[in-house]
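User: Quick sanity check before I run a bigger batch. Here is a single chain. Can you write out its predicted 3D structure?
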Amino acid sequence: MNSRPGVAVPLGVISRRELLTLAGATGLGLVAVACGSTSISPSALATTSGATAAPSGQPVAGCILTPELDEGPYYLDGEATRRNITDGHPGSPLALTISVVAARGCAPVAGASVEVWHADAAGDYSGFGNGSSSRTFLRGVQVTDAAGLVTFDTIYPGWYPGRAVHIHIKVRNGGSTVHTGQLFFLDTANATAFANPAYSARGDKWVHNGDDGIYTQGGSSTIVEIKGTASAYTGAVTVGIA
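Assistant: Done. Predicted structure follows.
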């Protein structure tokens, strides 16, 4: 749990043996797929999920198969189809745009169902514990448009003991679940966001990414690129599916 995330290595300069060694060390069994280029720069890997798709949804040179990560204990089936999932809960507004692309070929995937769910500023999930009076807040489903995009109007997720700050995601395509994972935020972004009074009363005991065993399985490929201030954020991430 205390290991630090590894340094991204561009494809094209890493040998096949080294790549297989790294895959074995992470326990993923998922290997990055380059498309349209023989390499992916470390800066690209450190931004969204390795493909740095622009908000327009246009794919760029490098795509990866986004790592599968734990669904967690707080999933609820039957989430409502909607863009705004806040249900009036306090916190810093976050417009989260998710781009779904084919890892092999980089084409946007239209018509995919994208579900998200996460904790509120108090660290509670709807349907569980202190959030059990509601089954809907900070949960929702949308279908990707022709550019492979969905945007959720939510709040910056809160923290709870033992886990780094994250958003859960599940993608279905053609009736099948094609990705289950988690999205994370840079530690520096978390520190800024939690200065907001909606979060700050709980203190600063949130877990850094490098100390979260689930984050270290996915690393920088799971990071949401954040812009804005604690008063309002936009976030973007690309999810590559098989």
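Helices lie at 16-26, 42-45, 187-193, 197-200, 213-218.

User: Great, the batch can go ahead then.
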